[in-house]
Design brief:
About 25% of the residues lie in helices and about 25% in strands. The strands form three sheets. Strands 6-3-7-8 form a four-stranded mixed beta sheet, with helices on one face. Strands 1-2 form a two-stranded antiparallel sheet. A two-stranded antiparallel sheet has the order 4-5. The protein starts with a helix and ends with a strand.
């Protein structure tokens, strides 16, 4: 949800373009990960996750930051931290 929101609000849906005007492209996360792996700019959001949840098979997950601060865990900061979920 954080990825879709950031893409739609901050990038006008570059990756999540709606299909039939109703749902986001189900391949949007894959498209984003592929673009980032080819040095595309990251969307401006950070999801704070517990230590050990910031990578998958030793590959860092974009837009995540590991934290041991229970107040930050599972929060998302958007647009230069001006908006927090």
């Amino acid at each position: 949800m954080a990825f879709q929101y950031a893409d739609k609000v901050l990038k006008a849906g570059v990756y999540t373009r709606s299909i039939d005007g109703q749902i986001s492209d189900p391949n949007s996360v894959d498209k984003y990960l592929d673009a980032v792996s080819k040095d595309a700019d990251l969307l401006d959001f950070t999801l704070y996750v517990p230590i050990g949840y910031g990578s998958l098979e030793k590959v860092k997950i974009p837009n995540t930051e590991e934290t041991d601060d229970p107040k930050k865990m599972w929060t998302v900061h958007f647009n230069g931290r001006l908006e927090v979920w």
